[in-house]
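Sanity check

After download, print the first record. It should look like this:
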Amino acid sequence: MRKLLAFTLLALTAVAGRAQTYQIDYRRAMQAQDTAKVRKVLTTWQQKKPQDPDWYVANFNYLLKKSYRVVVSADPDKKGGVVFSKPDGKAAGSISKGYEPTLLAAARATLRDGIRVAPDRLDMRFGLAKTYEMTQEPAAEIEVLTAALADRQASGKPWRWRDGAALPAAEKVFVPESMEEYMLPYWQMQNAEADEVVRQLAELLGKYYPESSLAPFNLGTYYAQKKEWQKSLELFEQANTRKPNDWQTLANLTKVEIELGHKTQAQQYLAALRKLPEGRPAAADLSKEIREMK
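Expected structure tokens:
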């Protein structure tokens, strides 16, 4: 499992030419929280370079930041809120974060317009999907990611990243790992509804990147949590074939074989796990379970 996406706003870095000046002016105005200057830069930038994808990124960032709200509520059960209490310990209310709907919709519309201008810009696709994760709208998030991968397959054109540069790593590695990062918040929720979102994301990943081990790995985890051990085993075996000697996969294979009562197979996976330094702590725990098997 990889780390969480570290960004909410899309990154905007300087490139050569006049666009660089707009980006520098925009960044300085944003850092100074000079709203009037930001709007002026964005207006001039759009007039001079109406098809610049990075204008859409900048305007999206501006609108998204402007839409952010901290909400203090007398409702202690406010979804996603931090509850605060009275001196007697009783809940008094909550503090939660949110987004002003009209501005958030405008931010999303800006990014969708940018995607139409530059459909190969994966950073914009991911940024749009992230906004739906932020507002707990997984169906819309999945829709955005599905459209992105389908468009890539249909066009045959390689993905571009920030400033139109190449992806930071090979597509076959970068996109699956990024897709897995979208699964992590839902894994962390630890409930059946969120697990279904993971399943859909993993199946989407497997459809468009069938060579990646991450789709069967996450699906194997999904079915293990449902105690569908045989199906889980088959998926972890696929993950192990695609990426041998991954300690997490080997640990899960060992665990599933234990649950199925397959002592010999569990011992074989345990032996492989022990050879990996990062897998030895898990191997120590699993070996205890194997010793208890009949």
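If your output differs, re-run the checksum step. Summary of this record's structure: The chain is about 65% helix and 5% strand.
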